[in-house]
Amino acid sequence: MSLPSSNAGVVAPKKELLRGCLVAAAVAAVLLTVAVLPAEYGIDPTGAGRALGLTKLHSAAAPPVEAAKSAATPAPAPKGSTVSAPGEVRALTIASKQTVAYRADTQEITLPPGKGVEVKTHLAKGATLIFSWKTTKGEALNHDFHGEPVNAKGDEFESFILENDVSQSSGALIAPFTGVHGWYWKNKTDEPVTVVLQASGFYTDIFKK
């Protein structure tokens, strides 16, 4: 009587184990495709997740994530006003809080015959200066309202109002840079001319140069 081969009882279980692993892997792949991807990530390649209502689980979980993103992202800056007066083109708005005390000054400046005189103020960037001046007898002068930065070199300056043969002038400035800003008058006559200057704003001093 022959005995059964000793390998027969071993080979069969190995085949069953391999078959079981393949079946388990197939089931896992199906679950991943049909259930996990639609529910967790909103990915539904077969359409079964939508049919089973699993994609709704992802949609329900999405708002808190989006809310967290919104909370971490700064809100966009509000758009500037676009209002304007009828028939006008809106100008650029320039406004700033002032740290220097408001002041107002009136000065009389005498220009010698054929000579020029400068009067200046110290203004910080964004500070406002308003002025009005006129000659006492209506004499005509050349006028240059200008400014120059701190430690300016040579001809490093900017003229804001430049005019010839005027006996009075008025204006306002919001300083585009920190520096000295003010007036230059040139007396073209053979007699002394007196200028009365009224200035106000947020400058630290006013002086004759």
From TrEMBL:
Which stretches does UniProt call biased (Low complexity)?
Answer: 65-82
> Could you identify this protein by its name?
Transmembrane anchor protein
Q: Where is this region: Disordered?
A: 65-84
